[in-house]
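User: Could you go from structure to sequence for me? I need the amino acid at each position, not a summary. Structure tokens:
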């Protein structure tokens, strides 16, 4: 071997040593092989990609759900803005299903604590804001049931132990002839005097007066409560007492509480408050003629003369007399 051929031999040897066993592949062959292995099952690559995407999505959702979930009312754990959480569905214990403490007015009767709970803030119904059944003496006037409620049983303060208010009675300070304008005209005179005197419920006064059109017995409210002068002195303990023929004290003070000396009053009633004599009503209280007659009572008396003064009944309708005014 000559000197010029030695390098060539070494080069060939190096190439032979570096080549792997078996047939050699070109770049194109490699690309084809790779392509073939992927395309051998067209769905495998797509399925794999799809599965991976779904798994990633699920994991993301789970993470998001765990992150965004707030406190769960009813799980027994007080979390977030919950006031309580007793883990049950009992609406009558200390903790409501809304995870707030039970309170009067929530509309749920709290066992062992409340007797009622109607869910409103009214004190004039059957269940006031104390969540105890309404009763006489609780300080709340129940509509349609009580007339007053002053939390005590003293009948001398205008409200008795049955929560019935006292009705005021007075002898009119003004005197009138028999032409009163009928029963309604007489009522208006009582109401006007009561209003000027500043009496409570001034428009509820009516005249103790009878004619063919009506009488106290069928016009008045029959109260079980006390009837008293505007000064507070009782004249009767209820309607039955007022109409039994006698009264406890004379009706001899006016709407201002002032004593009246001349006490004759137009009435024409019997003891029970009904019409006494149809000929003694000054022509249904429209006449002031001397020849027409009217029945009268004596306000200084407590016996039957208070409604029918036998000494001067009947009297001429020309004569001026007072009116008994009674609150309804």
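Assistant: Here is the amino acid at each position, in order:
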């Amino acid at each position: 071997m000559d000197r010029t051929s030695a390098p060539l031999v070494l080069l060939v040897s190096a190439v032979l040593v570096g080549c792997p066993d078996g047939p050699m592949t070109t770049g194109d062959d490699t690309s084809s092989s790779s392509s073939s292995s992927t395309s051998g099952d067209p769905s495998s690559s797509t399925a794999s990609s799809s599965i991976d995407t779904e798994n990633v999505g699920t994991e993301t959702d789970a993470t998001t759900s765990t992150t965004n979930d707030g406190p769960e009312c009813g799980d027994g754990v007080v979390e977030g803005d919950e006031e309580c959480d007793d883990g049950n569905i009992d609406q009558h214990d200390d903790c409501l299903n809304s995870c707030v403490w039970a309170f009067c007015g929530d509309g749920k009767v709290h066992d062992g604590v409340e007797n009622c709970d109607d869910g409103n803030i009214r004190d004039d119904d059957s269940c006031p804001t104390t969540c105890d059944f309404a009763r006489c003496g609780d300080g709340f006037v129940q509509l349609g049931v009580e007339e007053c409620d002053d939390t005590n049983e003293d009948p001398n303060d205008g409200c008795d132990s049955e929560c019935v208010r006292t009705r005021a009675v007075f002898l009119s300070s003004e005197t009138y002839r028999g032409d009163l304008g009928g029963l309604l005209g007489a009522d208006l005179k009582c109401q006007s005097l009561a209003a000027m005197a500043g009496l409570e419920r001034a428009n509820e006064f009516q005249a103790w007066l009878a004619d063919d059109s009506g009488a106290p017995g069928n016009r008045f409210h029959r109260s079980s409560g006390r009837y008293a002068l505007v000064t507070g002195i009782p004249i009767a303990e209820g309607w039955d007492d007022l109409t039994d023929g006698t009264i406890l004290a004379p009706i001899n003070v006016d709407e201002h509480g002032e004593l009246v000396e001349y006490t004759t009053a137009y009435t024409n009633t019997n003891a029970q408050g009904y019409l006494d004599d149809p000929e003694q009503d000054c022509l249904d209280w429209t006449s002031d003629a001397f020849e027409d007659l009217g029945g009268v009572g004596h306000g200084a008396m407590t016996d039957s003369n208070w409604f029918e003064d036998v000494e001067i009944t009947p009297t001429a309708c020309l004569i001026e007399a007072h009116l008994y005014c009674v609150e309804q």
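One structural detail worth keeping in mind: The beta strands are 167-171, 205-207, 227-229, 234-236, 264-266, 293-294, 296-298, 315-316, 322-327.
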